[in-house]
Design brief:
Helices cover 6% and strands 42% of the residues. The protein is mainly beta. The radius of gyration is 27 Å and the shape is extended.
């Protein structure tokens, strides 16, 4: 019997009796040999239960004890004296594994609370994992999935993001190093491609103006453009992403220029080129987007 409400001796004897909605403060197991105890607030369909216990923590998990020489049943053992740090990891549909984007040293219980804003996520499903580090090794993952969705272009640094909305145009070229050699006795040239060089470059055009109370603030557009120009010329790499799922790590390689067909309709144009992989944490670290480099 579990909590006096429902039981599951094996998958074929699972009872679907609903548990009481009482506050549970203590669980006692005795007079038997137990291999594992798992408690979750998620509702399991008896017809789909095969007897296996999930190995990954989610926000529905409340307790998971495997009795591996101890009675720990939490994901971080609930004490700052055991946990050295907490890592925030991310995995997109293009990643084969979780990659660390943030790490925080744990000195007090209050340090377990972490708030970060990730401007570098692409469109689509993104998984984040909260991972305690104990004795130098990663403990169980607490995983949460979110769906990233937006309908504009964005250009970001680690702590700021600007939308590119009006009159936006991005013309790109996929560059590769290919040579042709014309030789005597051949009708067609010999094509030579050496190395792995392959990267995007292109030109971006956009009309920049701030949004205030769901309206375009044309009266102060000049000041907003100055902010954008400072952003474009600060020498820092950017992450450029669109609503189709493309994401690039770029550098601005030209001087921004402006043209207009009306006194307040001013279009800014500049050139960019890829300078790294926006999915690779090593490149993100080298270019100042994150402060942790443990998964290179």
């Amino acid at each position: 019997m579990i909590l006096g409400r429902s039981f599951a001796g094996e998958p074929s004897t699972l009872s679907s009796t609903l548990p009481a909605a009482d506050t549970i403060e203590r669980l006692t197991l005795e007079n038997a040999i137990y291999d594992e105890t798992y408690v979750s607030v998620a509702i399991t369909n008896p017809d789909n239960f095969d007897g296996s216990i999930p190995s990954i923590w989610t926000f529905d998990t409340r307790l998971h004890a495997v009795f591996a020489g101890d009675l720990y049943g939490g994901n971080v053992s609930f004490t700052e004296s055991i946990v050295e740090s907490v890592r925030i990891k991310k995995r997109t549909k293009k990643d084969n594994r979780f990659q660390t984007i943030y790490e925080k040293k744990i000195k007090t219980n209050e340090d377990f609370e972490i708030h970060i804003t990730d401007y570098l996520e692409p469109v689509g499903e993104v998984e984040y994992a909260y991972v305690p580090v104990i004795s130098g090794g990663e403990s169980k993952y607490i995983v949460s999935s979110v769906r990233s969705s937006f309908d504009k272009y964005f250009m970001c640094e680690r702590d700021v993001s600007y939308p590119l909305m009006m009159d936006m145009d991005f013309s790109r070229t996929l560059n590769q190093q290919v040579g042709t050699v014309e030789t005597w006795g051949r009708q067609r040239p010999v094509i030579i491609k050496n190395g792995n060089l392959k990267y995007y470059s292109g030109d971006i055009e956009c009309t920049f103006a701030d949004i205030s109370e769901c309206m375009i603030d044309w009266n102060n557009a000049w000041d907003y453009r100055n902010t954008i120009n400072d952003f474009l010329t600060n020498g820092k790499p950017k992450v450029f992403k669109d609503f189709e799922g493309n994401i690039y790590m770029i550098a601005v390689i030209s001087s921004p220029s402006e043209s207009h067909d009306y006194w307040n309709h001013i279009t800014t144009k500049f050139s960019v080129t890829e300078c790294g992989d926006a999915y690779a944490t090593g490149d993100l670290y080298d270019n100042g987007f994150i402060d942790v480099d443990v998964d290179r």
